[in-house]
């Protein structure tokens, strides 16, 4: 289904803003006819933006309008590619001119000498023709300027993240589940299956989480406890591995399924275990899969339990749950729905004056579904009463169609501020039950151009991204994965909503097996990382000519478990990627903005990595890279470079200073790094730099280079401080002014001279520092 028009509205407005800067006009001003074409682009885009609100209404009932929006979206991506190409050329010339003895005026004047090559001129011509054709089709559909549009997003009043909310209306259900788990009937097998059955959005997973985390005397008998998210892909090997890893808190290195089962058998022998298999679907030969999976469970102690959550009663029967072991979860009452709604809609019981008059309508819209009540509450939170009435009376509630998406979820997306629409739709690249971190997602949003920093604003993109994330969390589109970690997850129905919103722009490789991927629509893709990923796995990518996102993801996260750094590192040590993918396939993906090779045991990158001119996010963490090619320093758009856990990396490229857009250089746990490359202080946009290794030679960065990095935040470690010869250089690091650094580590790697006391004295941090560590390595 086509993406909503306001997703496009935010996108097109961004393109209009990018056509305005003086640098773009200077760049093309003397090229015959191009300035007129760019002005024509602006005129046509402005006319299209004006009718998008009308297109939203009609695309739900008129297929032609839906197809028109699809074509418009594809064109918008292509326009952005061309503008990025222009901007990159400008940036390249600025960097080249920076090191020359010339003024900025001379550099700008050199633009007049530049002539567009034939290919660039041809691209402009093609886009002009496509834009004109789309504009003419707009008129044929009779689309009109309705005078209304989605409001631009602005930061809401600070209210904190909703958390610690009680489970409403489920006291009887909770007691019933605990009673089922306490039964200890002797049977042919030592374990019993307890099934929670009900339609989507009723709270099956929430009820299972309650039991899983319950610490009553009955539940304390279960040890170990394991949680596995199964979803619609019942991969018996993955599920078995996840159970074994959870039980042992160790990575599973064996590949043979029989060996995994043998090891699991030994681990469960004689133990009264509780295993939760969340969200099982009746697909394929479920009986055969279940028969094979349960083989090791029979050696557990009497009274062991398997909790299954499913939408299908047949699943419960196939997996052996008796009639007394099946709990059918019913919808909650209208009063319960209203209580859930109020938890999410009101900050401090700030009900609107005529709330009582709206209660009945709100309850009707929730249809007894806790998910609907939670989502509607998040949607109406902090809105005026007239906006409540507009939303509750929207015709989307009554729209008929084949879509399985709840009307309240469609409305929640419909009323998202324009900036957040693309950010939310992008999350469709995450598979069901994938747990993500806030910072990870914000950096991806930034790399994809979904967060724009207004020129007049003092706030950083990262701070805007935090606001975006918290807004989606408050609207219940994101939810905490558990109480014990900082990860988040989307309900599977919300994931369906994100896929609907994204249309064909995002896809997960596993979902497209056997499909024809020649469509030009696809731009963003993720895939599940395997132990060995050969070139054949990615053959489909050769057909996706303008792919922007190459993102491996791991499904090893299991609910309720937090693993140590060592465990995660060991788990990542076993992933391999075919050399042909790195040296043949990836260099062809010249439109990539996001490239992650995290965890793959690669040792080198090709020089051609420097040809990925639009790349903004490069994750090489936990690889065996020994050095980065010097061509990496021509990635002028790069914002994020993640090298965490690259223990073999000995040096960074000499010209790293050319990456003027770099904001995050994560080099934590890079043990072999001897010094930072020269003139690092030119990277004035840096936000995070966990470890600054102080150098002392002319081809290295000394401590004074820190001085100009005024935006640093989070943890900052200054290592090899023995290389500081002049204590005044330490003063020039200006740590006092870096008020967003909350943890500071000062480290000397050998015996220090008395002169180093002066260095320490001049490394005085700001007064609000939360943590200070001084570390001296003695012989």
UniProtKB/TrEMBL annotation:
Keywords attached to this entry: ATP-binding, Nucleotide-binding, Plant defense, Repeat
Biological-process GO terms, alphabetical: defense response; response to other organism
Keyword Repeat tagged: yes
Record Pfam families: LRR_14, NB-ARC, Rx_N, WHD_DRP
Occurrences of domain Disease resistance protein winged helix (ranges): 429-498
Domain Disease resistance R13L4/SHOC-2-like LRR: 587-744
Disease resistance N-terminal domain segment(s): 8-102
Domain of life: Eukaryota
InterPro entries documented for this protein: Apaf_helical, LRR_dom_sf, LRR_R13L4/SHOC2-like, NB-ARC, P-loop_NTPase, RX-like_CC, Rx_N, WH-like_DNA-bd_sf
Residue ranges annotated for the NB-ARC domain, each copy included: 173-350
GO molecular function terms listed in the Swiss-Prot or TrEMBL record: ADP binding; ATP binding
Name recorded for this polypeptide: NB-ARC domain-containing disease resistance protein
Origin species: Prunus dulcis (Almond)
Source taxonomy: Eukaryota, Viridiplantae, Streptophyta, Embryophyta, Tracheophyta
């Amino acid at each position: 289904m086509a993406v909503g028009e306001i997703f496009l509205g935010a996108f097109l407005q961004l393109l209009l803003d990018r056509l305005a800067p003086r640098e773009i006009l200077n760049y093309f001003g003397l090229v015959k006819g191009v300035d007129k074409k760019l002005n024509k682009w602006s005129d046509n885009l402005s006319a299209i933006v004006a009718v998008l609100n009308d297109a939203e209404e009609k695309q739900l009932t008129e297929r032609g309008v839906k197809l028109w929006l699809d074509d418009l979206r594809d064109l918008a991506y292509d326009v952005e590619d061309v503008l990025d190409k222009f901007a990159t050329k400008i940036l390249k010339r600025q960097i080249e001119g920076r090191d020359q003895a010339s003024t900025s005026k001379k550099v700008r004047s050199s633009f007049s000498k530049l002539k567009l090559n034939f290919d660039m001129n041809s691209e402009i011509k093609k886009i002009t023709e496509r834009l004109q054709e789309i504009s003419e089709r707009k008129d044929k559909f009779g689309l009109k300027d309705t005078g209304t549009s989605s409001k631009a997003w602005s930061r809401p009043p600070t209210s904190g993240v909703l958390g610690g909310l009680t489970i409403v209306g489920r006291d009887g259900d909770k007691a019933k589940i605990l009673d089922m788990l306490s039964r200890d009937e002797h049977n042919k097998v030592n374990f019993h299956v307890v099934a929670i059955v009900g339609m989507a959005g009723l709270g099956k997973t929430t009820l299972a989480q309650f039991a899983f985390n319950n610490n009553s005397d009955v539940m304390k008998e279960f040890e170990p406890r394991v949680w596995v998210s199964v979803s619609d892909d019942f991969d018996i090997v993955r599920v078995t591995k996840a159970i074994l890893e959870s039980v042992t808190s160790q990575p599973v290195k064996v590949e043979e399924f029989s060996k995994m089962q043998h090891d699991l058998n030994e681990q469960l022998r004689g133990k009264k275990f509780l295993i939760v298999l969340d969200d099982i679907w009746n697909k394929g030969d479920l009986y055969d899969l279940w028969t094979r999976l349960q083989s090791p469970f029979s050696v557990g102690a009497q009274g062991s339990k398997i909790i299954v959550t499913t939408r299908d009663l047949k699943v419960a029967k196939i997996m052996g749950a008796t009639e007394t072991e099946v709990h059918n979860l019913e919808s909650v009452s209208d009063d319960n729905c209203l209580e859930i709604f109020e938890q999410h809609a009101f900050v401090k019981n700030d009900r609107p004056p005529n709330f009582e008059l709206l209660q009945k309508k709100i309850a009707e819209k929730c249809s007894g579904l806790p998910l609907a009540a939670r989502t509607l509450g998040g949607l109406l939170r902090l809105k005026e009463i007239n906006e409540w009435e507009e939303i509750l009376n929207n015709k989307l509630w009554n729209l008929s169609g084949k879509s399985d998406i709840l009307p309240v979820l469609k409305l929640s997306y419909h009323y998202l501020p324009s900036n957040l629409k693309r950010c939310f739709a992008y999350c469709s690249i995450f598979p069901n039950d994938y747990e993500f971190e806030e910072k990870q997602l914000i950096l991806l949003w930034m790399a994809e151009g979904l967060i724009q920093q207004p020129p007049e604003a003092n706030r950083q993109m990262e701070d805007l991204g935090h606001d975006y994330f918290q807004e989606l969390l408050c609207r219940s589109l994101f939810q905490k994965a558990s109480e014990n970690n900082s990860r988040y997850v989307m309900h599977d129905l919300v994931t369906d909503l994100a896929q609907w919103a994204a249309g064909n722009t995002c896809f997960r490789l596993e979902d497209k097996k056997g499909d024809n991927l020649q469509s030009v629509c696809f731009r963003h893709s993720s895939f599940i990382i395997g132990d060995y990923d050969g070139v054949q796995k990615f053959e489909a990518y050769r057909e996706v000519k303008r792919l922007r996102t190459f993102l491996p993801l791991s499904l090893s996260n299991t609910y309720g478990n937090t693993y140590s750094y060592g465990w995660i590192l060991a788990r990542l040590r076993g992933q391999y990627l075919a050399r042909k993918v790195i040296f043949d396939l990836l260099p062809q993906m010249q439109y990539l903005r996001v490239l992650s090779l995290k965890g793959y045991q690669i040792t080198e990158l090709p020089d051609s990595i420097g040809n990925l001119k639009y790349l903004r996010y490069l994750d090489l963490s936990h690889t065996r890279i020994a050095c980065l090619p010097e061509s990496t320093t021509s990635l002028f758009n790069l914002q994020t470079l993640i090298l965490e856990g690259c223990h073999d990396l000995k040096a960074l490229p000499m010209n790293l200073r050319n990456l003027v857009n770099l904001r995050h250089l994560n080099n934590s746990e890079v043990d072999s790094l001897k010094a930072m490359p020269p003139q690092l202080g030119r990277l004035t946009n840096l936000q995070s730099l966990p470890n600054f290794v102080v150098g002392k030679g002319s081809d290295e960065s000394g401590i004074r280079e820190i001085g100009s990095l005024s935006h640093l935040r989070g943890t900052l470690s200054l290592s090899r401080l023995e290389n500081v010869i002049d204590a005044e250089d330490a003063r020039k690091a200006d740590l006092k002014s870096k008020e967003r650094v909350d943890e500071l580590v000062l480290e000397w790697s050998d015996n220090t001279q008395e002169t180093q006391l002066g260095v320490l004295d001049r490394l005085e941090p700001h007064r609000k520092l939360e943590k200070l560590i001084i570390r001296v390595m003695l012989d």
